[in-house]
Amino acid sequence: MARPSRYAPDNLPRPRHWTQDAACAGEKTAVFFPAGTTGTPIEIDVQYAKTFCDRCPVRGQCLAHALTFREDHGVWGGLDENERAEMIRQARLEAERRRRREREEQARAGAAA
User: How does residue 112 score in pLDDT terms, banded at 50, 70 and 90?
Assistant: First the structure.
């Protein structure tokens, strides 16, 4: 019988994941995905979910995860889906402005040469 490797993945300690340090760790997931079905206005549910984010030590990592993996729903990193969508829209607009300025500068440099 073959002896299992001491390097097998199940024998190595797993690295700590940022979610373990989140202020919301252990809370019901539904808190962060308000659907407005409880009779409470959805805005109040969203604000309640965001109270966890206000004191969260990994808020930035949570938001980065949501933006990287395009989390379409829920509160992540202190922002709801509409706020994240606006953040992405603004970043795209700024990137387009930057590209346009670079093209204009290249055109001016080419014309001056």
Answer: confident
Say if 4 falls within a structural domain. Answer: no
Q: Is the pTM of this model over 0.85?
A: no
H/E element, 84:
helix 81-112
> Measured in Å, how far apart are the chain's first and last C-alpha atoms?
76
Close Cβ partners of 54 (under 8 Å, ≥ 6 residues apart):
78
Three-class SS state of 79: strand
The verdict on residue 11 lying in a domain is: no
Nearest to 77 by CA among 90, 67, 89, 91: 67
Within a domain: residue 101?
yes
If one counts the domains in the chain, the total is 1
Q: Among 40, 20, 21, which residue's Cα sits nearest to residue 30?
A: 40
Of 90, 94, 57, 64, the residue nearest 79 (C-alpha): 64
**Does 27 fall in a domain?**
no
Domain that holds residue 96: 38-112
